[in-house]
User: Fold this.
Amino acid sequence: NAGVTQTPKFQVLKTGQSMTLQCAQDMNHNSMYWYRQDPGMGLRLIYYSASEGTTDKGEVPNGYNVSRLNKREFSLRLESAAPSQTSVYFCASQVPSGVPETQYFGPGTRLLVL
Amino acid sequence: AQSVTQLDSHVSVSEGTPVLLRCNYSSSYSPSLFWYVQHPNKGLQLLLKYTSAATLVKGINGFEAEFKKSETSFHLTKPSAHMSDAAEYFCASDTGRRALTFGSGTRLQVQP
Assistant:
């Protein structure tokens, strides 16, 4: 089991460029999440997908779009990158349950927007 | 709305001495609470979680945390720090929407 995988590991963009961050999990989890991590602010939820075919906004969704491609994959897209989106992005997944369960995190994508 | 406050951004201890990382929560109901650890350039790993069972929760690597409703606290402790414990620690609470809200993190430094 690879767990949660993310690609790329590191990316540099110029302001206005677009890119898609990829996330996949092989644990048969229904719920998947995208967070961003900034110094001194912990992790903040961008979007989440409770199940295949559904997505919901989190705390900081502006400037991002997501796609739940299938049960395994959940991608995050920046249509027009801005320097404020420089951050470390983490994808996570969770077992299908009605109660809060452990979230499993990927290794992260470090994004620098110039 | 649920919120989590980690009271110390940085804690430094000597190897072999106790560790205390403080976390307070704010919630309109009794939440589920989590502690995660992040080693440099790595993702987050669950240390332990509280889900309304026993108030004293034991986790991996000798860590434990006690849920105190009267104090709205969920502090993380370890009797004896090891060099390998040096990392950043995050307290988190469920939001009731299957997502988590995280504290700002506490960086633990362990001195030899």
